[in-house]
Amino acid sequence: MTTTKTSPQAKRSGLPNKQRLTTPRVLRTGMYVTWGASVLLLIATISGVEKQRYAIKTVGIDSAPSIIFAQRLKDSLAGMDANAVNELLVKPGQNPRAIQDYEERRKAFAERIIAAAKNITYGDAELKPIQKMQLAQGEYIAKIQQARDFNERGDANGVLEAYRQAAAIMDNTLLPAADTLDAVNSTELERTYNEQRFATAEALFFVIISSLLLLGVLVALQLFLNHRMRRILNPMLLAATAIAIIFLGYTINAFFSASYQLKVAKEDAFTSLHAVRQARALGYGVNAEQGRYLLDGADATKYQQAFLDKAAKIVNIPANQTFETVAAASAQGLKVEGLTGYMALELNNITFPGEREAAVQSLSTFGSYLMIDKQIRQLQKSGRHQEAIALSTGYNPGQSNWAFGEFKKANQNTFDLNQKAFDKAIAQGFREVNGFEITTPIVVVLICVLTLLGLLPRLKEYDRS
What we know:
Layout: H1 8-13, H2 23-88, H3 96-118, H4 124-152, H5 156-229, H6 235-295, H7 300-314, H8 323-331, H9 342-347, H10 355-381, H11 385-393, H12 400-432, H13 436-464
Helix pairs in contact: 2-3, 2-5, 2-6, 2-12, 2-13, 3-4, 4-5, 5-6, 6-7, 6-12, 6-13, 8-10, 10-11, 10-12
């Protein structure tokens, strides 16, 4: 009969020899835990990168461009209407510029509606307003052509009736459909952006936790080897630890940088882009209301109020201020209390070089346009109808369409500055999270292999003994 000797340590622990935490067992367990932590790091990193990339894609490719398309569709439609009124205010052929601009706006709408249709992301919610605009635009064009035909025949009542029907299509169908398209994408953009901030923090938390677990095991193995086998450092484990630390720092930096670029794109650039484009679309609407005021005397009061309401949405100057004083304060970077509207939103969101100057110029030129509009209404109220029409439809310096053109130029400059910054931030955001699907597995494999190479010789020492 044979007996098994039990060591004093085993007796004290109450465990048989084969269940003791021997050095080989500890080393193998540490190696397996390192591999497991490496896999967790792989999963956490790739998952976080995918969330970052999804947020950047939603803001930069799916939602924001569709919102801008919606506003461009809106200003194309409103521009068609403004030029149609300018054409109908005079005899046929007397305003070729209005006819030309109408055609440019019509072609721009056709191109943009196709582009919007190609960028559908949210199904029927986007498709239906696009279809509605496409169908209603044909009806609108038909009514404008009827008004032109009546104008050719000198039938003022026919012109007025046909245009009223066209205006109803524009106001009740076309422009609301463009606003719906804008709202669908704006809602999704805001939802994704808000969720992304939480998702990024969550993803980064798991990356850090898995990295600390990995680093903790690697350091524990180093300490164990030093204590049990009197080895100062294990080069392979040291290399694995260094790679893990470098990768953690790189990943944290990439996540924070991608989040920052998304913030620049959404809060700094896109907020201004949207406000500037809204102001431009409403500007065309204001211009149309000015023409309607002169064309349809029976509803002149209604059109004048519509003009004032739309102008106030673009910018509403406080009662104790003027455009000149607001422009002067804004040029110095001062916030004007009580200033509201899309221009105020842009002036309070200045971020990029040259943006302030462009925004102030946009404000000043719109103020000049409104001053000319006051002159038009004074002429109309004093019975000088033809002079009012000439001032409203003219393109020479000091006339309404000239002033509106100056506003559009300044508005476009502001838009272009923010669009460039938006595109740059989105591109940089993608670059920050690019390549992780390749580098992360490589890093994980390296750490696992180095751990194996570092511990295998120690394990073989026990196998030989």
